[in-house]
Amino acid sequence: MASQSLSRPRPEKPPFRSIGRAALLTLPMALWALLMFTPAFREPGRNSHIGALAVIVFMTALFFMMMHTGKTYRWRRIFFVALGLLFPVGFIASLIALRGTMSIPIERMVSGDTPFCYMVIPMIVLPAALTRSVVFPGSILPTASNPHSIAVMIAIWLAMTLVVGKAWCSYVCFFGGIEEGVAAIPKRAKLRRIDPRLRLIPWAILIFIVVLSAATFEPVYCMWLCPFKTITEYPAVHSVETAIQMGIFITLFAGLVIVLPYLTKKRTQCGFFCPFGAFQSLFNKISLFEIRFDREKCVDCTLCRTMCPTMALSAESIREGKTLLNCMKCGACVDSCKKDAAVWHLKGTKVAVKPERARLLFLYGAWAMATMFGGSILANSIATMLHWLPLK
Amino acid sequence: MRGRLVAVLAYIGAAVTLAIAACVPFVLMGLFTKAVAHAGLHVDDAYSGGTVVRSVTRTSETGSYRIDVYRTVRPHALQQIDPFVQIAFRPVAALPKRVCEEVDLDGDGQADVRVSFTVPADPKARPAGEVVALNGKYQSFRMPGSYSFSELMVESGGAVVVRVPLAQGR
Questions:
Q1: A270 in contact with B at a CB cutoff of 8 Å?
Q2: Mapped to the 3 state alphabet, what secondary structure does chain B carry?
């Protein structure tokens, strides 16, 4: 069956591989995971060994299930939700260990000890181009007190974006998993009518923060709008201004990451707010991989639109056989389509011809990046949790 | 024929993407990190304090320490900071318990401010002290007080860092 799906147009039912064939296709990814986490076994400390081993097994098992079932979304979601939930655990623990608090005092900013987050990248472009100044209180090169330096994080982002493009938002980002997890809780959406114009908000915020950051030489989004400050780090509250900032962070987090995803079953922060997501959408133009629709099979049931977590589909785009620019290639539409009209596609090839090959080529790259980046975060968080547990 | 050629190119592109993925941890990340590091970028002076323009060495009973005076930092366009000059007393371990120094900030040979502070025994505590302006160019302030990027007295990076705001603002 698997060989049919690789050599002929996609059959009516989704490909379903034998265990042996799925294991064979998983082997390269298992070796990759081993390669990525072998250094962890050379370091002392049982907890980090357990963390690394758990991640190797976890990532390999999920990839195997993707190969075995032919489905992508549900297995990717398990990884992504785990990443979203465990990232704050490891990050907060490291902050507490380093400085005893989640708030970042001004002396840490002055000494360049703020870990650099990829969310800042769109904001630093214009000031850096104009004056070579990076408007972030970090350090350009890694230091003992700040390994997450500006150069390292930009390098990670650049290298991974070359591979996954906008799929960053569903395979790499360590923030999106929380709302994806919350959105998965209810069986049905309580809020179903969402104005499609809300999709434009991330673009508006992107333009706003890029221009304002260039004018004020401050990372405006981080200072005023980032919902994830609530669960990472924030400026120490010592004035009315910083109290207002903290209030905004908590409100946005509660609204966009908890309440609205629960009510809508959508990734509302990602789809209707995140400027970095909008910025990453631009890389869909250069990415070779995409989702397309076989118009001969599509019956316009709109199930794919209902399932899409970021409303990256419209009636017009489906009629044209395409997704919108903000598609993050999570695979929800492909997996949900009962007519196999939604397919993985490699640009330049015929639509719906060998879609499984396109999926495989995409998944090898995306999962490799997920294992390398997200996997290391998971391993670190697991080791941290084990450190807390009173185990002998 | 053309369609077939495009398809072949697409598969070559996909293979290149996979090759890039395989190179990310071993080659690309290091390469890109070096490229960014060599791009001549620097952290904005409002955060880093700018560049050192002169240094003075002092000796105390605990050893010799250095006073670094930085170039005046002025805000860009609509940047919400007041112009300031950073002074760093380092290393903290060599500082006497009570520091009181008159410092020339503009390099004209005349002291501009008197900086005095007590180095806290607890490394998590902030130094307490004051800056007294000796002329009209700079502002006096007392710490602990209202900390901002233009006006502070903190222990940071193995030094006691003091930022003195200019009196005439922008």
A1: no
A2: CHHHHHHHHHHHHHHHHHHHHHHHHHHHHHHHHHHHHCCCCEECHHHHCCCEEEEEEEEECCEEEEEEEECCECCCCCCCCCCEEEEEEECHHHCCCEEEEEECCCCCCCCCEEEEEECCCCCCCCCEEEEEECCCCECCEEECCCCECCEEEEEECCEEEEEEEECCCC
